């Protein structure tokens, strides 16, 4: 590659990063502005007072529960890698998850996901194609688990005689928007998962066809081979019922602890709800809030999560908007705070520079062999 080509490539990467950053910053401003308009009748002082009145002991329990979920996230990720025949101990997998999630709080458009692939390649020599495929598998399990929890919570509310999902759709505009968005994400997740499982069990010969196209167009061969390797890594998990069950069970535990954290936050703010109502409403609010964060419209999902969470709690319970918003803010801030502290510590332990980590995977993928392995 000539100096001119290298300069052009560098300029292209910088331009791409700046474009993602501008879009994410603009999205964050719009989302936060929209949230401000939606809660314009709530006095800021009231929300601050609600946050200040939270029971510190219960909040401490919420922090402990969320911290406890992280080793389980690492174990689940190591199970995903093991299904792809790439071994990693739980400690390194947890560190990789911590660092990548922290990077996603700082880097626009969830580009921090590349950091995890970089860490696993550096620490356990996991190929980049497998690293990104493992992330795809994990995201699909996350979305499927969240959607399942949301459906269980709605069923619980309907059977328990509380406000049902149909009444909520009809009566509360904010909650209706959040539920419809969550339903759209859930439907898309189920569709993608069905396609992956079906294609993994069918001998359609697509991989062979793509490789043949690569031989006809040499300039596309590397990209097509990487795509085939990526798809193959994802599908290999879909062919293993035991792995699906193990990863699915791990996802259920991880997200149950995430929900319990929010339930404890609601309890710390003296919402006045019974335990049953706290569990059902907290589960639905966290599920819909996280599904709302799927689109990278704001940095770290700020605003999207709070808006959906608040709309669901206010629409389903007699809890006031100020308490609901305070709970959403504390819950999201608590989780982001634990993620940030853990990620910074993990990055320091690895001696990792986030700027180097986010550029290295892209540069390395361009010099990968046709088997998707990084050149040594």
Automatic annotation (TrEMBL):
Write out the GO cellular component annotations.
plasma membrane
Q: List the transmembrane segments.
A: 23-39, 51-68, 140-159, 179-200, 243-269, 275-295, 307-330
Q: Please indicate if the UniProt record lists Zinc as a keyword.
A: no
Question: How does this protein lie in the membrane?
Answer: Multi-pass membrane protein
Q: Where in the cell is it found?
A: Cell membrane
The entry's keywords: Cell membrane, Membrane, Transmembrane, Transmembrane helix
Give the family this protein belongs to, as stated in its UniProt record: Belongs to the UPF0104 family.
- This chain belongs to the protein called Lysylphosphatidylglycerol synthetase/UPF0104
Source organism of this protein record: Natrinema limicola JCM 13563
Q: Which lineage? A: Archaea, Methanobacteriati, Methanobacteriota, Stenosarchaea group, Halobacteria
């Amino acid at each position: 590659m000539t100096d001119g080509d290298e300069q052009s490539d560098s300029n292209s990467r910088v331009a791409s990063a700046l474009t993602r950053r501008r879009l994410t910053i603009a999205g964050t401003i719009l989302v936060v502005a929209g949230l401000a308009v939606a809660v314009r009748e709530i006095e800021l002082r009231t929300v601050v007072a609600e946050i200040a009145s939270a029971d510190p002991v219960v909040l401490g329990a919420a922090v402990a529960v969320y911290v406890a979920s992280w080793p389980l996230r690492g174990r689940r990720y190591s199970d995903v890698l093991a299904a792809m025949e790439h071994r990693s101990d739980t400690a390194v997998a947890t560190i990789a998850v911590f660092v990548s999630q922290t990077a996603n709080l700082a880097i626009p458009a969830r580009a921090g996901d590349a950091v995890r692939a970089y860490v696993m390649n550096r620490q356990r020599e996991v190929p980049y194609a497998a690293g990104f495929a493992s992330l795809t598998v994990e995201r699909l399990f996350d979305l499927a688990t969240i959607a399942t929890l949301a459906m269980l919570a709605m069923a619980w509310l309907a059977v328990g005689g509380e406000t049902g999902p149909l009444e909520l759709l009809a009566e509360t505009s904010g909650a209706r928007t959040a539920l419809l968005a969550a339903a759209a994400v859930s439907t898309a997740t189920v569709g993608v998962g069905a396609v992956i499982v079906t294609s993994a069990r069918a001998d359609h010969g697509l991989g062979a066809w793509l490789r043949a196209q690569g031989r006809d167009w040499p300039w596309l061969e590397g990209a097509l081979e990487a795509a085939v390797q990526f798809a193959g890594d994802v599908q290999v998990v879909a062919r293993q019922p035991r792995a699906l069950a193990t990863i699915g069970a791990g996802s259920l535990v991880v997200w149950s602890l995430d929900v319990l954290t929010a339930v404890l936050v609601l309890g710390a703010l003296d919402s006045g709800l019974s335990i049953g109502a706290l569990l059902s409403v907290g589960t639905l609010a966290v599920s819909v809030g996280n599904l709302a964060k799927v689109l990278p419209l704001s940095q770290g999902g700020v605003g999207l999560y709070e808006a959906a969470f608040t709309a669901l709690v206010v629409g389903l319970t007699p809890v006031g908007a100020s308490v609901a918003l305070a709970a959403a803010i504390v819950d999201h801030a608590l989780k982001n705070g634990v993620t940030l502290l853990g990620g910074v510590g993990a990055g320091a332990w690895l001696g990792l520079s986030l700027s180097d980590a986010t550029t290295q995977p892209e540069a390395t993928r361009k010099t990968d062999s046709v088997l998707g392995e990084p050149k040594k």
